[in-house]
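sorry for the late reply, my laptop died twice this morning and i had to redo everyting from scratch. anyway the thing you sent over, i finally got around to it. pasting the sequence first so we're on the same page, its 163 residues, then the predicted structure underneath. double check i copied it right bc i was rushing
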Amino acid sequence: MKDNNETLGLAKKLIAVTISIFLGIVVSVVFVLKLLEVDTTKVKHAKLSNDFLFKDIPIIDIRNEQDLKRTAVLKHSILLTFYRKDRRFDERQFLRYLNTIIDKNSKFAILSQNGDESIKVSKLLKSKGYERVINLDGGILEGIKNYVKFVKYNPYQLNKPVL
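ok and here's the structure:
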């Protein structure tokens, strides 16, 4: 009887040690996987300000022509409409045009009216391999608050919105 109780106690201890080792391995594996996890939607953010403009980072203005007329444009921004008036978009066409302007490995910023569209487009671009994309939080409206100088939109300028 004593041998059975000792054997049973030893078996319980062995099971407890095995479970502890197993849980330790699982926790370690989860920790390593979390370290290796790459979230393709994490985008760098900045505010449109004169300080940002001095960094000479290309800015892609994704607003449609109606928004450009209503507000204004940055003098040296690249106008490349993403959302049309009907709120639809052609991702393939946008990327085709973007690839003629920006190298995938280059740092550049995405600008919209208030930042809502630019964060979506920035996340999309990040997921497509544009690792250095920057979302301009608050959009053109943030730039207005920060006294950034704009110019009136001219539909006949060479830098006309594509799409």
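Residues 2-36 form the longest helix (35 residues).
thats about all i looked at so far, will dig more tmrw
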